[in-house]
Amino acid sequence: MIHSLFIINSSGDIFLEKHWRSVVNRSVCDYFLDAQLAKPNDIPPIIQTAHHYLVSVQRNGVSLVAACKQESPPLFVIEFLHRVVDTFEDYFSECTESIIKENYVLVYELLDEMLDNGFPSVTESNVLKELIKPPNILRTIANTVTGKSNMAGTLPTGQLSAIPWRRTGVKYTNNEAYFDVVEEVDAIIDKSGSTVFAEIQGYIDCCIKLSGMPDLTLSFMNPRLFDDVSFHPCVRFKRWEGERLLSFIPPDGNFRLMSYHIGTQSIVAIPIYVRHNLSFKTGEQAKLDITVGPKTTLGRTLENVKLEIQMPKAILNCSLTTNQGKYAFDPTNKVLTWDVGRIDVTKLPNIRGSVSVQVGTTSLETNPSINVHFTISQLAVSGLKVNRLDMYGEKYKPFKGVKYLTKAGKFQMRM
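Given the sequence above, the corresponding structure tokens read:
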């Protein structure tokens, strides 16, 4: 499986390495660095060398490179590397070079528990937090004075049961379960406003605070929407295959229940439109006029709206005025960024003005692409709807008094 792990910064420096089965010389990372130098934005996830396979992921300017001597399932290694980054973000809020360097000891302790002799061992966040306490100021001061570490003295109770992702003896005064449906829409729209390509990547994130060993069953009104799904290990996959029901005993705390993909064969209603007038003429002042507004949002508000325009290389500067938000132009990368914020339908955001073109330019790209980013709270663009959420106890008898509230994009259950 995994023999060694190297963590590399954006400059190509290896600032952390961890070895399990045998020590792999860090010179093996030269193959990865060569690929990074050749194509910084298109690094192959798997690189074959003379004696190793290098599997890598890139997150937040940090690259995690795993060296494997034997041929291993690549997606298995990639998923583990992403799980490592997610664990770092859960412990330290973010995974950057400076944060990792500040928590070297804790990082090595986590890697020791997450991988045993090169094979994944403990990857559940709530179980890891029982083994290794998350950092805080008081604990750091106490450890410095006493010389102790964040390692717990006893094995987590969940590791000794048939359900390793949940600890035993969980008790809450108020039993609650929260589910957030998060959907990311990736679409290509032509200049006439027609959708050329669209797909949705969705997630269901949970925060479970239930006593005992609850057994939950979640059903959807339209489960056939899903083209591809990925589940947390707690989900009973056989029941999903046969009945399209999510049946699971959840971990305690925060976790991702499932992720799904919806392709272009489903109708995706894009909730935002962009009216643009880009008039570029060589040797003259170019004109720019852009207006954004909501389409079908079902009464919801468009928030965190941001536009990025890759301008032609001959553009020198921009002199624009906006009635909402602020803009910035990067003369090096030729990127115009307009941070709109929240859209008020009574006054649509607009940006207009002139753009300076380099003198002597004979050809100019007149149709630059516009990247639009936005968020809408409590709206599932795919139309995904929750049908029912049931909870059973130790003897699989429905609890009394369970109420659940369903919303577009978010639902919760309280006892």
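Confidence is low (pLDDT under 50) at residues 394-411. Try to locate this feature in the token string yourself.
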